[in-house]
Specification:
Oligomer: single chain
Shape: globular
Distance between the termini: 44 Å
Length: 485
């Protein structure tokens, strides 16, 4: 059964001992971050701050900060179960009817997909209280996360926009720096769908209507951060993940649908003619992203539950909550990558690489130059285009064992021969690139080299003990009087 809302999920975590309540008063600025950072670094529980100074609204943070909590959130036993769900969906999508009878056979499957589509309803808990005359952010415990931040930040907003030409919806997570009670920045990255909507609105010289949900059920929160192809509705993915359609209600002052079960909804607009300096912001890279000009969000209404929960996330030097969300995305994306590149065995984007900086890929190598084909293929895949370093190894390497990867890669490469540099788009948060949004990337071919790839020497065998001796020593181990192996 899907979670009704964010509080249903929080209750489930608490019942399983995966959430701790902090009952003493805490300061919203920096203190919450320091507590959360320490808890995140030791893989601790979700945190419910009951008493944030200056607000009557409790704050939930670190809700998705472990594999276990994410599996609870998405109702799977493991991330493998998450990948299996995606495989099922891809199988449905792959069925192409060839005959009339094939079409008849496909009807039940099409109905299965259609039942995940969002459903519009007339009312929802997110509109129990409506303020349009004097909307304000003042009541909410929006924290300052790090000492050099430009201000207080809404860090887990579910931002809903529409393409002004096609009307297609996008839901993304774009941080919002609070300027005052009625205006914020809207940090839409250049390569994201919301910025594409904004640019189209700019060309038409019209405001872009925006609605921001804060706190929804886990599937909606997760879908908002998924790097989906352009114009794919995140709410369909959310319906698929939760096994039930997302109920949406129309906002009061803008023509935008929002999740009916949200805790808080901010309605408003951005004007293409207006921008303002946003930042710095302590980001998931572990460094401050630099200040720059971004669109300004103007508040026209606040709707909320009578007793809402403020949902937040802390980002900073890994590991943090967003690392575990990124790991879930990695596992969800793997089946999709395998559909396009069947030779891919596994992928790992280590936390230390903050995902866009390093991807390790294992493949079943079948022909000369295969590793380079995979590098360029990945650089051509949506958000994967930002990957700064791609290391390709063979299928006998465990990509999740970084020691094994380093050992084999460093033994397998001739640096001049096996490193391939390319130029292209880079992540907005890459502070080392020569220009904003543009820089170099490198692929490392750490596979065994073939003579067809110009390797004239004999490739040595890896040192492996014979199975017979391993079995003998295993059987006799207790006789040696040594500690357990």
């Amino acid at each position: 059964m899907p979670y009704r809302d964010l509080r249903h999920f929080a209750e489930t975590l608490e019942a399983r001992g995966l959430l701790r309540r902090v009952r003493v008063p805490v300061d919203r600025d920096l203190e919450i971050s320091e507590i959360t950072d320490r808890v995140s670094k030791r893989n601790g529980p979700a945190l419910w701050f009951e008493s944030v100074k200056g607000s009557d609204v409790p704050l939930l943070i670190n809700a998705f900060g472990s594999v276990e909590r994410l599996c609870v959130a998405l109702d799977v036993e493991s991330f493998d179960g998450l990948a299996a769900k995606v495989e099922d969906l891809l199988t449905l999508a792959d069925d192409k009817p060839k005959t009339f009878f094939d079409k008849l056979k496909l009807l039940p499957k099409l109905g299965e997909i259609a039942r995940f589509f969002p459903k519009e309803v007339n009312e929802g808990p997110c509109q129990e209280l409506v303020e349009t005359a004097h909307p304000s952010l003042a009541a909410f415990p929006i924290p300052t996360c790090w000492p050099e931040d430009g201000g207080r930040y809404i860090t887990y907003p579910l931002v809903f926009t529409h393409d002004p030409e096609t009307g297609k919806r996008n839901c993304g997570t774009y941080r919002m720096q609070v300027y005052d009670e009625r205006t914020t920045a809207l940090h839409m990255h250049l390569h994201k769908d919301a910025m594409r909507h904004f640019q189209k609105s700019s060309e038409k010289r019209q405001r872009m209507e925006v609605a921001v949900a804060i706190g929804s059920d886990p599937a909606v929160c997760f879908a908002a951060i998924m790097p989906l192809p352009p114009d794919v509705d995140e709410m369909i993915l959310a319906g698929f993940l939760r096994g039930d359609p997302v109920k949406m209600v129309r906002a009061k002052t803008v023509d935008v649908l929002v999740p009916a079960n949200a805790e808080i909804v901010l309605e408003g607009y951005v004007d293409p003619a207006e921008s303002r300096v946003e930042g710095p912001f302590g980001d998931h890279t572990g460094f401050y992203s630099l200040a720059d000009d971004y669109p300004v969000f103007h508040l026209t209404a606040v709707t909320r539950r009578r007793q809402p929960i403020y949902h937040s996330i802390l980002v900073g030097r890994p590991p943090q909550e967003d690392c575990w969300l990124g790991r879930a995305i990695e596992r969800l994306a793997l089946p999709v990558m395998r559909r396009q590149f069947p030779e891919i065995v596994d992928v790992n984007m280590p936390f230390e690489g903050v995902f866009h900086n390093l991807m390790i890929v294992s493949i079943k190598k079948r022909y000369p130059g295969h590793a380079r084909k995979i590098m360029h293929g990945i650089w051509g895949l949506g958000q994967a285009m930002f990957t700064k370093v791609i290391v390709v190894v063979e299928d006998d390497t465990n990509v999740h064992d970084l020691g094994e990867v380093a050992w084999k890669a460093l033994n397998h490469i001739d640096p001049e021969r096996d490193l391939e540099f390319v130029m292209g788009p880079v992540e907005t948060l890459d502070h080392a690139s020569r220009l904003p949004w543009y820089g170099s990337k490198v692929g490392v071919d750490a596979t065994r080299k073939w003579k067809e790839e110009g390797f004239a020497r004999e490739w040595p065998n890896e040192i492996v003990m014979s199975p017979e001796v391993r079995d003998l020593v295993s059987r006799r181990w207790d006789e040696y009087g040594l500690s357990k192996p």
